[in-house]
Amino acid sequence: MVARNVRILRDQRGLSLAELARQAGLAKQTLSKLEQGAGNPTVETLFSIATALGVPVTRLVSEREQVMTVQRGDEVVWKRHTGYESRTLDHVYGSGVIENYLVRITGRPGAPSEPHPPGTLEHVYVISGRVRVGPVDSPVELAEGDFARYPGDSPHTYESLDGESLLHLVVSVPRVQPGTGGMGAR
What we know:
The protein is of the alpha+beta class. The chain has helices at 2-12, 17-24, 28-35, 43-53, 58-61; strands at residues 69-71, 79-81, 84-86, 97-106, 121-128, 130-135, 140-143, 147-151, 156-160, 164-173. It has two domains: 2-61, lambda repressor-like DNA-binding domains (434 Repressor (Amino-terminal Domain)); 69-173, Jelly Rolls (Sandwich), CATH 2.60.120.10. The two termini are 36 Å apart.
């Protein structure tokens, strides 16, 4: 599990084995053995790698979350605080760029949105209306108050099922690739 997680996170950030080893202060051979599943890393080694990748050490030693998460508005729990209530939608780990959008959708979808850089996730909260969103091959229908997270690094779609719908869209890109800048027009 550690080998797979380190390799995936390193690839998502576009780091070579040598560069990650350098940033973590480790020998390249140590990191290579770990990624092959042949190493037995110390706690210090895991913390060094996690720090270099910009993630908590728990991301290295736990199973990856499922690819798509859906949270239905009528099934959530609101946590009470003094003077307000809050609802956790999702957690974003790692380094990179987090972009926030309000998206107004009217009518049928156009062409699918192009894939974002590897490792990108889209987090959608439906403010109003009913929509179909997500990967082109497996979109999900959501209603007001629903939340979904899905891979943004494959073609994806946004479609309003009720005329006009309003979404809060958060795009988390693990590492900005040189020359890509922001997301641009949708």
